[in-house]
Amino acid sequence: MENTLLIALSRQTTLRREMTSVANNIANMNTHAYKRESMMFDDFLMRSKGGEAIMGDKLKFVRDVSQYRDLSEGNLEETGNSLDVAIHGDGYFVVETPQGNRYTRNGHFQLNNEGIVVTSDGHPVLTAEGDQVSIQANDSRIEISRTGQIYTDGGEIGKLSIVNFENPQFLNKVSSTMYSSDTPGTQIEQPHVIQGKLELSNVQPIIEMTRMIDVHRSYEKAKDLVGKEDERIKKALTLISDR
């Protein structure tokens, strides 16, 4: 009798986590360079009564094993801002934080009061040599080449550090668009960056809303199953007590 309740509970637990993932995707659909996430599940089959028949039912326990990140590139948005930079293809910008180097594809950069190029959170952007990008107060021109070289009125001042990883799925999520890694990335010698553009989120709102409706319906079905099973157990106990 307990198997049905355990199966329904496992299903509800995984669906709740899936709903959290969908809601987070929808909340970040306008976040630059955000990558859509979804849950990955394992099914554990157990032979039930009548399972020997060709169309026999199977009991299925569900367990969420990990979260999958959709690494496909988002569309590019034209901004015209000289400090907005998008990566076309593979790669991550390297930024310096108090907790160590972090990695992001969100190239919405700006200058702080000291003339250092930083992220919107104030973290310095690093060059391939590991230095911060410093712009002089009298520099009126900032140009970034296709391969990441940075030029001002005084000439070339460095090259953006753009790295890649053997398996980006293993990156640890720190914030919506920031990641950490246990091992440093490998420098991409010939990256493809585009100045004056930003990568948009790869979330497709219609698909996420459809997923949300499907998850909600599945959760309600599991809830109904729990209710029916509870009624069945109560009736069985009543019949036993009446004997």
UniProtKB/TrEMBL annotation:
A cellular-component GO term for this protein: bacterial-type flagellum basal body, rod
Residue ranges annotated for the Flagellar basal-body/hook protein C-terminal domain, each copy included: 195-238
Occurrences of domain Flagellar basal body rod protein N-terminal (ranges): 5-35
Coiled coil: none
UniProt-listed GO biological process terms: bacterial-type flagellum-dependent swarming motility
Alphabetic keyword roster: Bacterial flagellum, Cell projection, Cilium, Flagellum
Primary location: other
Cited PROSITE patterns: FLAGELLA_BB_ROD
Location relative to the cell: Bacterial flagellum basal body
Domain (Flagellar hook protein FlgE/F/G-like D1) ranges: 86-151
Signal peptide coordinates: none
PANTHER family given in the database record: FLAGELLAR BASAL-BODY ROD PROTEIN FLGG, FLAGELLAR PROTEIN
Subunit structure, as described in the record: The basal body constitutes a major portion of the flagellar organelle and consists of five rings (E,L,P,S, and M) mounted on a central rod. The rod consists of about 26 subunits of FlgG in the distal portion, and FlgB, FlgC and FlgF are thought to build up the proximal portion of the rod with about 6 subunits each.
Recorded family membership: Belongs to the flagella basal body rod proteins family.
Designated name of the protein: Flagellar basal-body rod protein FlgF
Lineage: Bacteria, Pseudomonadati, Pseudomonadota, Alphaproteobacteria, Rhodospirillales
